[in-house]
């Protein structure tokens, strides 16, 4: 649904290389029972491609669903208890000034390559991620150096205080991996691009068929430090089914085990369907409509404000029927910076006046372009309601549903859309991710797809990490000021709603919980059947 940073090579070229080099059997729609032919296979269905980037240093997109089962980080964030928990590190401590953090690593972990994990290997992985400076590597900006003082001790030296225990639990750019996986003299970048992995997690990659319905298969890693018990799933299959109704039918037929995305009507059915269990959990994920502030008709702030006023956010939330809640700004509840109290009521008369001021109306019709996620029924609902509202104002909305890579590539390198719709969620349990990624100016747009270039916004964003570590009251005030500036004064975006995760899965799947800190991830090793 969101994001991928591909470095020097363009996304199309990388995907072409991946398709040519990726090993494994290619499966099509004819093999409809393959995923659930064995009780020890867990089949996960999503509406979008799974892998956009194989390099754990650069991964920043859909592949989180699989990566969190293949790779591990030093720590793990439990959103239910709001605490940082051990993962590859067993314990950690910070100096009083917050500038030195010391982690003790497990001594019984091996990579899927067979190499033993020690502090030197962990340092090498994190140093490489920082040096690559792609994806979410910005999370380590406070780090001056990392030191392996002995086999199980890893020390972080910081230039300013930062919560490294929380940062180390990030869903992106915090993975520990074997930097020697490509062998002596091997090109690790190219090795990863071929669909290889070098994690420590419970599952390893078995097959990858880019662009196919059955895209990715993982198998149990026998040497996993967490061990294995009877009743756990030893195979994980990721299946891409763009249509929600088709995914729901597959679940009812027993062909799949878990459906990630449902619309409200189907979720209502699922709650009363024999053999199906459901889960409903609040999230840190919101849907953003990003308005083109740089060129085209929406470069005029009056047009952007008119589109905001044409958007019936209250009606959208009502129509979502429980799958989303009203936003009060860019930052969702549960994170520092939430509670900004920003909302917009639909006002078509005021929108019509703004459009007239901008020169649109009789004799000068306006057409706006939009891109949004193919196969997402909730986004389609937004498109339908906004199309109708704009039509009342004499505005035509040309909305195009696309798969993520096509949508993202067009926004960065092709004909820029007037409205770009995408989900966003934090890289770790902190609101900074929205602002540094989506709204800070950059010479080449990655996720700043409103193309906002506001020096005052940039300056406030740059203050956030230090404020968060030293003065949470000041950080809260800065977050509120930023949201007012971006969403109200600049009218660069509308936060349409905050998702409530509604999942459906077979009722023989035991142990499933949704963790909003790792959106759309099923930690399959925690399940039993």
Spell out the key features of this protein.
eleven-stranded mixed beta sheet, four-stranded antiparallel beta sheet, alpha+beta, single chain
Folded structure, characterized:
Strand 2 (75-78) and strand 3 form a beta hairpin. Helix 13 packs antiparallel against helix 14. The two termini are 29 Å apart. The model is unreliable at 1-37 (pLDDT under 50). The strands form 3 sheets. Strands 1, 8, 9, 10, 11, 12, 13, 14, 15, 16 and 17 form an 11-stranded mixed beta sheet that branches. The protein has a 4-stranded antiparallel beta sheet with strand order 4-5-7-6, with helices on one face. The chain has a two-stranded antiparallel ribbon with strand order 2-3. It has 529 residues and is α+β, with helices and mostly antiparallel strands. The chain has helices at residues 11-21, 64-70, 119-132, 164-167, 188-193, 244-252, 264-271, 301-310, 313-320, 348-357, 377-392, 404-413, 432-439, 455-470, 472-489; strands at 41-46, 75-78, 83-86, 89-94, 100-105, 143-150, 153-158, 203-208, 214-220, 235-240, 258-259, 276-291, 324-325, 366-373, 395-402, 419-424, 493-506. The chain contains 15 helices and 17 strands.
Number of strands: 17
- Describe the largest sheet: 11 strands, mixed
Strand content: 15-25%
Q: Show unreliable segments.
A: 1-37
Instruction: Give me the number of helical elements.
Output: 15
Shape: globular
End-to-end Cα distance: 29 Å
Structural class: alpha+beta
Instruction: Report the helical percentage.
Output: 25-40%
Give the averaged pLDDT, no decimals.
91
Rg, please? 23 Å
